[in-house]
Amino acid sequence: MARRSVFAKSGQGSDEINISPLIDMVFILLIFFIVTTVFVEETGVDVNKPQAASAVDLDKNSILIAITDTAKVVYGGREIGTSGVRSIVRRLTQKEDMPVIIQADKVVQTELLVRVIDEAKLGGAKNVSLSTDGF
User: Fold this and answer.
1) Architecture of the structural domain at 63-131
2) What is the mean pLDDT of each run of 10 residues along the chain (135 residues)?
3) CA atoms of 54 and 45, how far apart (whole Å)
């Protein structure tokens, strides 16, 4: 019984929680995040930025068109060329409006990319987006 009374007396101490280390840790984390923050550098010009396809819920299927580094335009695993983009987009968007997502290699010339975007829009696509790698 002597043991029980010793434990019972030691457990009757203060019920307060020391939060000093917690406050110190929060301040250290705050300083860490302030120091490691990356600030966005503005270009200094007002640019009308395109809306990202990821910002819109894409409940529908998408038309994925790829442009390879050898300037081949590919849909569904077969080469269609820039002339085939319009007919494929027109055929697939007749029943329902589907977004067109273009996956272009980073060495693709801008002229070819713009031609594919134009052909997709002429085919009836209302939403044409570019797929890129994230940061």
Assistant:
1) 2-Layer Sandwich (3.30)
2) 52 73 91 79 44 50 84 86 91 86 85 93 89 58
3) 25
